[in-house]
Specification:
This protein has helices at about 10-20, 25-45, 50-65, 110-115, 160-165, 185-190, 225-235, 280-295, 305-330, 340-345, 355-370, 400-405, 435-450, and strands at about 45-50, 80, 120-125, 145, 150-155, 170-175, 190-195, 215-220, 265-270, 295-300, 380, 410-420, 425-430. With about 450 residues, the protein is of the alpha/beta class. The strands form two sheets. An eleven-stranded mixed beta sheet has the order 1-3-2-6-8-7-12-13-11-9-10, sandwiched between helices. It has a two-stranded antiparallel sheet with strand order 4-5. The longest helix has 27 residues, at about 305-330. The chain starts with 10 loop residues before the first helix and ends in a 9-residue tail after the last helix.
């Protein structure tokens, strides 16, 4: 009989037990379903629990593994997906009522790849409407309390994914990230969140927020687990024009490469004033010190264009989102939640020329930032400028996340310490396009040698 504590261990540790047939995928999946059903009434991290479907997949995985076919470390492992990714035969409301009755006819590419790797999908996680909020607020389906302190928010927009992984309901989950929607809830919930390079992971079959800014990536309790999920998800997809025919690698084999000799730019001034709360700044300093002790060369760098880029990214996001959802604004506006509706309507405050001018400014700022960071392998900033806000309070702060969406660069957040109100704080590490292995290597050093040491809520 398996112990419920298995759910709180990292994916890679339990996967080795499954491979050796010491633990059954069916037992793990039943543990996961039981935990979800017990905690979801108060946590609200799942919009849909797919109990029977998950158990069928677990039984199939068990038959394959018993028969000598082992697909890899995701085989038989309970995983969740954000509720904007299509699963054939299930609804994909993306946090909205206007999409609530839409039943997917095909799996999204990310779901297909996870299932091909043998993952058992237990359900679809809660999110704000259209993924258009940095908080978990949702007028239709309700918010998601933070597992570390339920009086505070879990962040958005991959709210349920962050909370479910932190709580040990599943071993990993997918998130989407248009301005920080993987990295913000990962930071606030004390887990690892990886936004790959734009175009590294297919977004086909995923409800759109912004065509040029959307990313899909993993949320897990360890850096190695994030790499394992990226192994399955990464690659060119002819059905998604945003993906690129660039080589992938076995990211899980790269995580222990270390940071010896790497040059890391620590952003000491982004042009936006004070960089964060005392706990946030302390966590950044501890994370950087850990990297320096492991052999990295660390330098403080001023990049004032980041604040401008953050503001510009926000305007472009609103315009792209409104272009996609305009039919609902015209025909079903009263069915939209107030928060999403009002944000979409902001787009119409911009002149018709702004999108072109903004896109030109985006190219100029990108070049300036690239010039300032020339010669550095990695960039270090806080995950967020503050700890999780009180539940029901939405803080519009994508200051350190949105710029990397506009750049399209890969970025990872790794928890470092606990700040005020028993809430996690994290470091964020970014690199140039297609260098996911570098951010994973640096994240692994912070995780291995830093003060966090795998802490979990409760």
């Amino acid at each position: 009989m398996v112990d419920g504590s298995l759910l709180r261990k990292p994916l890679h540790e339990v996967a080795s037990l499954v491979e050796r047939r010491e633990v059954s995928p069916v037992e793990l999946t039943q543990l996961s379903i039981n935990a979800i059903e017990r905690m979801n009434p108060t946590q609200n991290s799942f919009r849909l629990v797919m109990a029977e479907r998950a158990l069928d997949a677990a039984r199939a995985a068990e038959v394959e593994i018993t028969g000598g076919t082992y697909r890899g470390p995701l085989h038989g492992m309970p995983i969740a997906v954000k509720d904007l990714m299509d699963i054939a035969g299930e609804t994909t409301p993306a946090g909205s009522m206007v999409l609530a009755d839409r039943v997917a006819t095909d799996d999204s590419e990310g779901v297909r790849l996870l299932q091909e790797a043998g993952a058992v999908i237990t359900g679809k996680t809660s999110m704000p409407e259209f993924a258009f909020s940095p908080g978990s607020n949702n007028q239709h389906y309700g918010p998601v309390p933070n597992p570390w302190n339920p009086e505070h928010d879990s962040g958005g927009s991959s709210s349920g994914s962050g909370a479910s992984v932190a709580s040990g309901l599943v071993y990993g989950a997918t998130g989407s990230d248009t301005g920080g929607s993987i990295r913000m809830p990962a930071t606030l919930c004390g887990i690892v969140g990886l936004k790959p390079t734009h175009g590294r992971v297919s977004a086909r079959g995923v409800v759109t927020l912004s065509w040029s800014l959307d990313h899909i990536g993993p949320m897990t309790r360890s850096v190695l687990d994030a790499a394992i999920m990226l192994d399955a998800l990464a690659g060119y997809d002819a059905g998604d024009a945003r993906t690129r025919k660039v080589p992938t690698e076995r990211y899980s084999a790269a995580v222990d490469g270390g940071v010896e000799g790497l040059r890391i730019a620590v952003i000491s001034d982004d042009g936006g004033g004070p960089m964060g709360t005392p706990a946030v700044l302390d966590a950044l300093a501890k994370g950087v010190a850990t990297l320096e002790a492991a052999g990295a060369n660390v330098e403080q760098v001023v990049v004032p264009e980041i604040a401008d880029f953050s503001a510009l990214y926000g305007a472009l996001l609103v315009i792209e989102a409104a272009a996609y959802y305009e039919p609902f604004l015209r025909e079903r506006r009263d069915e939209l939640g107030e928060f999403a509706r009002d944000r979409l309507l902001l787009a119409y405050a911009y002149s018709p020329a702004f999108f072109v001018q903004g896109s030109q400014a985006r190219a100029v700022l990108r070049r300036r930032i690239e010039d300032r960071l020339a010669g550095y392998d990695l960039i270090a900033v806080p995950g967020m400028p503050h700890e999780a806000p009180p539940l029901g309070i939405v803080q519009q702060n994508t200051r350190y996340t949105g710029p990397f969406n506009a750049l399209g660069w890969p970025a990872i957040v790794v928890p470092v310490d606990i700040g005020t109100n028993n809430l996690p704080v994290a470091i964020q590490l970014a690199a140039r396009p297609w260098q996911e292995s570098l951010v994973l290597r640096a994240g692994r050093v912070v995780e291995r040698d830093g003060p966090w040491q795998g802490r979990l809520p409760g």
